[in-house]
Amino acid sequence: MNRNHLLVVLLAAAAPLALAAPGRAAAQDAAPPLQENPHSARFKDVERGFFLGFEAGYLSFLDTPVADPKAYPQPGAAGESSGGRSGGATIGMNLGYDFTPRLAVALFLQGASQKASVNYGAFSVLAAGGDVRFAYYGSKDRNDWERLLLYVHARAGYAKTYPTGLFGTTDVIVQGGPGIEYFTKLRHFSIGAALDYVRATKAGANGVALYPTVRYTF
To answer: How far apart are CA 54 and CA 77, in angstroms?
Structure first.
């Protein structure tokens, strides 16, 4: 075998190795795929977004004036023009949205049953309107989720009162105050409580409401 023929044989044998080398280098340079951590959280511990809330508690008006003295000439004791302080249950629901983890806006529907002095009797209030809430403080758990919130809120709504002419007929109810909310380990649910100052603007009556809350976030 002459020298030229030997050179051709060596080149033919080396060619496949030369072509395969870049492929092996690229395979070595490619990083292996990351394995998913089986202990990492697959869901949010605290949900934010659209929510539906419920509340039930106690409402008291410090004074109960008479809207129509002709229809109710003697509402209070000894002919007084007021039934004095009233008290009773209040229940409500709200539908809203968390625009941020600290700011929420909602529509609310609220009803209250009130009982004043014996001569004044009982009356009810049904209101609907809007509510704005801002959490000024949040406490994080060990997983860095804000689970406990302290907030202030304010709401205003159009109200109807029954019987007509006693406490009023229509009114505008404004109320607001501090509250607390805790997001449970059930993820979609939170519980809390609020203490509100309440004002029936047309009747000119001030009151206070204390109620626990339950919220479900979708």
So the answer is: 37
What are 60's two structure tokens?
């008291």
In a domain, 193, yes or no: yes
Tokens of 62: 């410090």
Q: For position 171, which CATH number holds?
A: 2.40.160.20
Q: How many whole angstroms separate alpha carbon 104 and alpha carbon 7?
A: 82
Q: Out of 2-11, 162-171, 181-190, which region has the weakest mean confidence (pLDDT)?
A: 2-11
* pLDDT digit string, tens, across residues 83-134: 899 999 999 999 999 999 999 999 999 999 999 998 899 999 999 999 999 9
d(CA 131, CA 154): 6
Q: Where are the beta strands (DSSP E) in the chain?
A: 50-61, 88-98, 103-115, 122-140, 146-162, 170-183, 189-200, 205-217
The verdict on residue 44 lying in a domain is no
**Domain range enclosing 201:** 50-217
Q: What is the pTM of this model?
A: 0.77
Reference 76, options 120, 123, 124, 116; nearest CA is: 120
Q: How many domains does the chain have?
A: 1
